[in-house]
Amino acid sequence: xxxxxxxxxxxxxxxxxxxxxxxxxxxxTKKGGQYCKETxxxxxxxxAQSSNIKLDVLDxxxxxxxxxxxxxxxxxxxxxxxxxKLFYFGMPGGNQLKCLVEDIIDASEGTxxxxxxxxxxxxxxxxxxxxxxxxxxxxxxxxTVVRTAHRFAIENQxxxxxxxxxxxxxELNLKYGIMGVPKTVINERxxxxxxxxxxxxxxxxxxxxxxxxx
Length: 214
Fold this sequence. Notes:
This protein is an alpha/beta fold. It has two domains: 1-82, Glutaredoxin (3-Layer(aba) Sandwich); 112-214, Glutaredoxin, CATH 3.40.30.10. The chain is 41% helix and 21% strand. It has eight helices and eight strands. It has helices spanning 5-18, 36-47, 63-67, 96-109, 116-122, 142-155, 170-176, 198-212; strands spanning 23-29, 53-59, 75-79, 85-89, 129-135, 159-165, 183-186, 190-193. The protein has an eight-stranded mixed beta sheet with strand order 2-1-3-4-6-5-7-8. Strand 1 (23-29), helix 2 and strand 2 (53-59) form a beta-alpha-beta unit. The longest helix is centred in the last third of the chain and has 15 residues, at 198-212.
C-alpha cells in the first residue's frame, strides 16, 4: 500500500506538531503471509514521517510474538509511552489508516481525550479484559469503535484492545459469528454491533467485567 502524497504531508505535519515522545511499532509477519509485505511497506512509510516513530519487524515465530500472544499475521502493536499496547490484526488500511495515526499520537502522550467520567469508569477495571473489534477497510463506522477501544487500553493497561480486519481472518468471523461490522466482543461474553458513545461503551465493558466476575 502506497500512501498518497497529500496523506504523507498531513501525517508529517501532525507528527511534527503532536508527537512529544517516542512511539515503538512492532510488526509481526510470516513468510508468504497475506498482506504482510503491504503492511510492512505502509508502516515503513508512516515511521519515515517522524524520528519519534521506531519500527521493528519481527517474525510470527519470535519469542516477542509469543509473549504478546500474537498468533496471526500481519499484526501491528503500538507501544504507548505509558506502557500500554494497542493491537491491529490485519493491514490497517482504508478508513483504519486515520485511526492508526491518531492512536500513534495518543500513544506518544500516554493519555487520551476521553471525558473524566469515562476515564473513571475504565480505571475501575482491576483484572485483565479483552476487547475485539471486527472491522473492514471500507466501513466508515469501524474506526470510531476501534479508537474508543484503544483509548480505553491507553487509560488502563489491563485492557487488551484488538482491531481485527474481518476480511483477512475468516476463521475468526466464523468463531464469533460476524455477519456485519463493526462488531465488538468483550471478554468473550458481551457483544454489540455498530457504534456506541464512549460512555455507553464503557458501561458495556463494566458489564463484561461483572458477568465474568472480573
